[in-house]
């Protein structure tokens, strides 16, 4: 992979570097002879490929071998796992790769089978070939470690460096996707548009620390540096380097199939050579420095750790939001404040993330208190005054450029958006963030807990830490004194309270189940990111999502493609009572041009194609009987929410799904739809 990793070209070693290598070797041998601890050894060798004769000893030390209790000596030598024959076959295949003499193979097979068997028994695990344990043990065997040392290192690698959930949908892949989106949004969006998620190409990377795809020599060189880093998240940034270095090749594959792109990505590490490794790891270290570190605190125990630790949805969440649905990288209030403080103290010679804070709260909230270096961008402008919003965005970029050029303390290239921390208002903040992601803006993050979390952190020094703070108008200090521009709750324009007739209840009971299933599925799906509307025409697949299918629509498991139609033909269908041109606002804040078509019993959503004029996609077929509420907001009367569900015999409404549309003259549209719903209900009664 010499041509793939862009760096300094370490293969060209001059005499000065050779002298430094000799000095390092002498210092290392002296430290080992004197029994230096792991910190001293890493201080000498960090960032370097280890001498072959000392590799096994240093790996063992870096992996905690000298301080870790091992019960491997108590192995009972009973090989009775349920899949013991599979274990033995895998081990024999592994040992054949080493090329040892036949008399040595028997001993090695016994050792490795003992290691796998004992680990499964003590951890109460079922052996699984797909976990690639053989690829993890292979470099340890090649390093010529004693059997008991191999077990300790194998155990430490599995429980510290291999993600606990490394199969399809594992949280580590959602995090890798967010990190890629942060550093290379164009590449991330392209892969999203082709439905290529990291678990489709990076599973073997994660499960074997690249051992299953790289040559043995390259793997051992990577592990030399990897174990000295002592950072389980290092694998994510090595993966990021691979993806970023392959970006041009990937983006040129617009006409290739999805499987061809996945195959190409999966095999990239196979070209890595030993001479590439130092640059490979140096670039990973660079991206680590340039990435907000909140995720480390949030996800270390969720993603990595002992198999004894519990699994479950809590391991895949940020606050109340599933990691798979996170719009972008989250940043804690602590990191925001610490970063600003460190920059003011350390000056410009420190390499780290430099945030440009964007406060997206309403103006009266911003004027009642904000961080001194935060740029104000009222998120409500995006819907109320789109032209003003675009002007404000241009001003934001201009202010950021000027701040960076003038080296203003606490200002940098990394955009961190701050909401109020109040769910009702922050849905508009998410729309703003989504619009920046659609622009392929680099370094986009979102403050966890918004202004509320920042306020709580600074509460003991609030007057000196925040600008223009007014405790009487601040909604954190005085939550009961709602300001006039705070976003009100939904204004309920229309609710169906008529109890459905038994026949109708039976008829639509299955529909209710479909809605509930869809709602559950939505919580587990990736947030749908959309490519730049000026894309290349290969973006049909990006519309295909379980989220986009209506409760009465086709099952997504039967067909991955949405129905493609001629919009003009559908608008003229004889059963269409009327239609409304509008924008659909998705859960992630993205907006799509679409048409609502009303018939006697159905509400169709036709989304306009972004690549083919006149064509569209049927994204939903909603029965009018399933509409239980139609709501709007006082500040945004044209933003209409349709809520779907069921009504029990006693009149209790259960909402299981919803759609949101931005409709010009929405009051007229909702009036017509409400009238048709009532007509249908009257017809059902009769």
From TrEMBL:
Gene3D superfamilies according to UniProt: Rhodanese-like domain, Ypt/Rab-GAP domain of gyp1p, domain 3
Cellular component GO terms, alphabetical: cytosol; trans-Golgi network
Domain Rab-GAP TBC: 49-230
Transmembrane regions listed in the UniProt entry: none
Domain Rhodanese: from-to ranges: 351-386
Pfam family, one: Rhodanese
Keyword rRNA processing carried by entry: no
Entry keyword annotation includes Transport: no
Principal cellular location given in the protein's record: Golgi
Region of interest: Disordered: 480-499
GO biological process: one example: vesicle tethering to Golgi
Keywords: Developmental protein, Golgi apparatus
Compartments, record wording: Golgi apparatus, trans-Golgi network
Protein name, per record: TBC1 domain family member 23
